[in-house]
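Example record

One chain of 193 residues, shown exactly as stored in the release files.
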Amino acid sequence: MEKNIKSFCIVLATGAALLFSACGAGKSATKTVEVNMPCAEYMRSTTGQIRANGKGESMDQQMAGDMARTNALEQLASKINTSVKSLTESFALSHKVNDKEEFERKMGRLITTSVNQAISDYRTVCEKYTLTTRPDGSEFYTCYYVVEIGKEDVTSMFYNTLSSDGSLNFNYEYEKFKMEMDKAFKDADKANK
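Predicted structure tokens for this chain:
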């Protein structure tokens, strides 16, 4: 009888070992897959361009595109705004400004006008759509959208805006202004990485 109990324990242990090893055999290791995002090769700003991207999702293809374009333009405006504000703060510090609040109010107005003007001259660099089908059979579109504007275009537009407002006493020569604007763009690019 003792031999039967030993045999039974060995069979039970062997069966349990086989059962546990079989349960684990169906599981696979974690799998990592590289995802190629549409328009990814166009998303980084280049030396002469400021680029911005947006994404939109909708069951309507046109709506997905409109949402993506709006998101891209908002990001473009934000990038330009950040660069320009940095430059104007530097300008305010390097020049004696009698009424700082008035100066900041005027600069804020000019920045808004300039940014709005600048983004109206954007160029579409990439626009791609994907169609996704959910398990329930419903579908939706995703649009990836990339826009750009030339840094030189923004620089000259902003310089002309500042120069034409006589109340600011803006007396920078263009090349010096361009160098400072390039530095502001580079700083903004570093912050966005």
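Notes: The two ends are 75 Å apart (CA to CA).
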